[in-house]
What we know:
By secondary structure, this protein is of the alpha/beta class. The protein has helices at 3-16, 37-47, 72-82, 99-112, 129-139, 154-161, 168-188, 198-209; strands at 27-31, 54-57, 90-93, 119-123, 144-148.
Amino acid sequence: xxxYIRDLAVKLWDYHHTNHQLEKADAILVLCSHDxxxxxxxxxxxxxxxxxxxxxxxxxxxxxxxxxxxxxxxxFARIARDMGVPADRILIENRSANTxxxxxxxxxxxxxxxxxxxxxxxxxxxxxxxxxxxxFRQVWPEKQLIVTSPQDSFDTYLSHYSNPELTPDDIxxxxxxxxxxxxxYPDKGFQIPQEIPADVWAAYEALVNAGYNQHLAS
Length: 218
């Protein structure tokens, strides 16, 4: 990756972060994916006492259906149990295939269990924070949320924590696709609108023109 591409990617990386400050909540909701570091972050927050309930949501998505056979939530929950989270403090939703389903299927699961948390800490990949926030607020607007992720710099994330099945260029392409969705999904009713600064959109367009277009929505 050239310095030019890295600088463009970091601009998207910074924008995708919500920079929320942690506060105690009723539940931690981990939105699962190909990145098991997200499971570790969710478990760490539970073990630190930020919330009394840990929920994992994720079946097999666009990427994981090609690299795993086990639902994301089942794998992530096992990681949390191995880290010391009691099994009876974990809930698993393992049917969802996208972020909107993560939220709506979790809502259904909690209703079935007669649980009604009002505040959530949502845990996601670093470059999915903003999109997760916008999606949650669209699907479940009456609840309050804080979004967080593994606390890594862009370079650290690429060198240590992205799935070995994915290259750094793959991660940049995914970030580009997520920014496109932040722009177009409000009109589809999938997310609340988020302002995109002109310089961030210019970086997006430059990355698309450089070939980082594999994860754009059709």
